[in-house]
Backbone:
């Protein structure tokens, strides 16, 4: 295998984001409402769909690699499957090579041209089928070759052997079964199968996540070589930022069903703009001696449920840079604490029974206790009083009034308005 | 100089499976100083997790520790053991492998604690998190009160166990103090509103929160040695960063000695003082973090570093290690360097006999490699391994 097509150089020559658009995705949505029965709809309060992908737009240019990065559950794999029509989108449009897929009656041509490589090589090949047959299957299904030259069976066999060798395996392994190969080899076979029909576009869904790091590097180099040899266009889905940086020209960062930032790879890594991108990059431990001294301030909390995502900016429940209203003088950390209290009140997630019992109905003392439990910074007097008042409401069981009391003063643009633009964050509003 | 807290010598663990004998851990030796973090890094199947399990004596059938010793420094224990079993004691060190079953069990969960990769499968789904941590507290208390008591479960046994499990399964036997201690522990590991969370069940916790709860459980006994097997592998990077920060804080606060198993060199860089690299069941190189990152000696260590994508620069091409991890079946393993097939600098000598872990850059930096010992002599012809 040749090993001298550096990913870095390729990126220089193809200026990010230019050239002909091969795939254009507009406002793509994919909701899952399975498991919500009629009874739930009639009586349940939580009869809402999982909004796995919620209004995602991006273009992929011919010959480039677009990276789609995000944490588990952010919807990145669903995007990959939905643009290939392996799942039907709930809304939105996907255009491939200038043509809207919605309007196409026959997707056969598209399916030949756009292929996918899955994460787990052990479960994506039929264990009872020799690997040669697995590679040949797409050829059979699409009646390859379409011209009538020569004996079709012979040409197929030739094609399969050629593919096998192209991905760095030997043609005499074709009769073996998947169990006789290692993970890295199986992933090579998966690549051979995806390339069988000579497609233009490949979705690579975490292609190296199941592999060890030494083998991962082999596969990444192979994918880079194949791209330059065949002029392939990739959508590369991964949670691993190191891998993404190595292979991608442009990168889109996803959080909770939305793309929060799209930027050329170099720019995203040297100058991340969205607070989530920043936090994500900061979290990755570097393979470097200075790593121990590096001060990381990790994001607090967990990703909210995609059934009921936060209003406005979806990242606001964890964002260290959430924007306070103009008329309040308060520092960032203090405002974050108040916002966290508000989130807990909105979710009715504060346990009050014990406190109430301990304080014999003295709501003021009960609120004091809750305050100590929830607020671990020194707030300015005025804010302290207001939060305390809200907690008195909480101990009285009056969640709604507590919420209103705080919203009145602390309502942030991050919760009222959904951010738009290249960087989906109000800090970048003009 | 005092003895290290932990000295592992020639630890060997084998699995007797239907396909044959698997040499999962082969003659592994290392030392861990008090308060240090020792990292073991390797790819899947390199034997790093089995090494961790062997340390705390949790290898399950068909696996068996067949050889080697695990010396642990604890003067009280040494005093007590010396009378019955003088062979198992060396100064203040005690060889855990020579203790009887109940002594070893008493150490587990008190002096030794372990956290696992997958927090969701490490908790009982039908008992609240608080109770499960309180149980760990009780285990610790009983062990302190009566070091020789074997029974550590809170349910009792015999007729009592029958009654508690079948007649009144909802009753659990943890004291109010243990419960309070559990809440304190949850607070220590950074779980917000711990009193409330303690009454919840594992499924109500997110992965990151549950991993914190598992750390709290491990801390219940204030262990001398914490063995952490891929503690962040199942988590997302932002949560991983939280957990690693928590672990570092606790590490410096309690002065725990930690053995950290991971496949992620970034985690190694963030957490460890000393590092061991495992390949095919053997420890092929060990040394300080700087030794390994700046002066890697074994070609496998170099390969591992070369194939890790670097987040801070995209300029270099990845340098993969060609080939695949070898089989660990005994009958398929010759007596030689197991990395030779993938090694860019394999020599005739590598195939004749195995090297010892003694090629050294310094007193503490050692590699199991002829190349490091005497340089590149008598290379194998090109394409030697291509059948």
Residues:
């Amino acid at each position: 295998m040749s090993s001298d097509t550096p990913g870095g150089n390729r990126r220089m020559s193809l200026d990010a984001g230019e050239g002909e658009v091969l795939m254009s995705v507009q406002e793509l949505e994919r909701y899952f409402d399975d498991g919500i029965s009629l009874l739930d709809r009639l009586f349940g309060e939580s009869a809402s769909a999982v909004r796995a992908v919620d209004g995602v737009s991006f273009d992929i240019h011919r010959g480039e690699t677009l990276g789609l990065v995000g944490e588990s559950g952010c919807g990145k794999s669903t995007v990959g499957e939905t643009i290939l029509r392996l799942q039907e989108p709930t809304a939105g449009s996907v255009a491939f090579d200038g043509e809207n897929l919605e309007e196409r009656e026959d997707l056969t041509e598209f399916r030949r041209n756009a292929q996918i490589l899955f994460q787990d090589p052990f479960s994506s090949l039929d264990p009872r089928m020799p690997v040669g047959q697995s590679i040949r299957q797409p050829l059979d299904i699409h009646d390859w070759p379409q011209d009538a030259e020569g004996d079709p069976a012979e040409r197929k066999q030739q094609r399969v052997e050629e593919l096998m060798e192209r991905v760095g395996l030997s043609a005499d392994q074709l009769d073996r079964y998947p169990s006789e190969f290692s993970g890295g080899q199986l992933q090579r076979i998966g690549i051979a199968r995806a390339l069988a029909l000579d497609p233009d576009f490949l979705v690579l869904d975490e292609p190296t996540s199941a592999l060890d790091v030494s083998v991962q590097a082999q596969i990444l180099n192979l994918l880079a070589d194949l791209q330059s040899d065949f002029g392939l266009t990739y959508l590369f889905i991964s949670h691993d930022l190191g891998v993404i940086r190595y292979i991608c020209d442009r990168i889109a960062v996803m959080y909770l069903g939305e793309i929060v930032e799209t930027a050329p790879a170099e720019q995203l890594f040297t100058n991340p703009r969205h607070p989530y991108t920043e936090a994500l990059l900061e979290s990755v431990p570097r393979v470097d001696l200075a790593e121990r001294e590096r001060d990381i301030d990790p994001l607090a909390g967990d990703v909210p449920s995609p059934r009921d995502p936060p209003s406005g900016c979806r990242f606001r429940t964890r964002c260290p840079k959430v924007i306070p209203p103009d008329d309040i003088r308060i520092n960032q950390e203090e405002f974050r604490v108040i916002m966290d209290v508000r989130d807990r009140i909105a979710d009715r997630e504060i346990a009050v029974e014990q406190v109430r019992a301990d304080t014999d109905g003295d709501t003021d003392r009960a609120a004091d206790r809750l305050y100590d439990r929830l607020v671990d910074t020194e707030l300015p007097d005025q804010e302290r009083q207001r939060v305390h008042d809200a907690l008195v409401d909480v101990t009285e069981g009056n969640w709604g009034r507590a919420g209103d009391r705080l919203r009145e003063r602390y309502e942030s643009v991050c919760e009222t308005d959904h951010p738009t633009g290249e960087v989906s964050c109000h800090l970048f509003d003009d | 100089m005092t003895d290290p807290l932990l000295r592992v010598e020639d630890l060997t663990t084998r699995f007797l499976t239907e396909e044959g004998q698997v040499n999962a851990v082969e003659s592994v030796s290392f030392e861990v100083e008090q308060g240090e973090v020792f990292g073991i890094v390797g790819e899947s199947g390199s034997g790093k997790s089995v090494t961790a399990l062997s340390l705390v004596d949790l290898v399950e059938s068909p696996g068996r520790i067949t050889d080697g010793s695990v010396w642990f420094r604890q003067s009280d224990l040494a005093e007590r053991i010396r009378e019955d079993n003088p062979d198992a004691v060396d100064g203040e060190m005690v060889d855990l492998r020579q203790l009887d079953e109940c002594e070893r069990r008493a150490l587990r969960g008190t002096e030794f604690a372990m956290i696992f990769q997958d927090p969701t499968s490490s908790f009982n789904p039908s008992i609240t998190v608080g109770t499960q941590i309180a149980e760990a507290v009780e285990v610790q208390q009983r062990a302190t009160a009566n070091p020789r008591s074997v029974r550590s479960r809170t349910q009792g046994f015999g007729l009592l166990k029958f009654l508690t499990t079948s007649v009144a399964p909802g009753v659990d036997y943890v004291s109010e103090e243990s419960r309070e201690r559990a809440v304190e522990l949850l607070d220590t590991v950074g779980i917000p509103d711990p009193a409330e969370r303690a009454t919840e069940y594992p499924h109500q916790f997110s992965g990151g929160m549950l991993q914190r709860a598992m750390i709290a459980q491990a801390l219940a006994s204030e262990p001398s040695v914490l063995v952490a097997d891929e503690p962040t592998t199942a988590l997302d990077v932002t949560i991983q960063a939280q957990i690693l920060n928590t672990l570092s804080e606790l590490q410096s606060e309690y002065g725990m000695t930690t053995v950290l198993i991971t496949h992620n060199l970034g985690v190694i860089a963030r957490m460890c003082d000393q590092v061991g690299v495992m390949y095919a069941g053997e420890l092929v190189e060990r040394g300080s973090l700087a030794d390994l990152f700046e002066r890697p000696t074994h070609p496998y260590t170099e390969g591992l570093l070369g194939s890790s994508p670097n987040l801070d620069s995209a300029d270099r091409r990845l340098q993969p290690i060609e080939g695949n991890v070898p089989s660990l079946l005994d009958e398929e393993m010759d007596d030689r360097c197991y990395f030779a097939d993938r090694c860019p600098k394999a020599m005739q000598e590598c195939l004749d006999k195995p090297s010892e872990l003694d090629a050294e850059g310094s007193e503490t930096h050692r590699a199991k490699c002829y190349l490091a010992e005497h340089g590149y002599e008598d290379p194998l012809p090109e394409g030697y391994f291509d059948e």
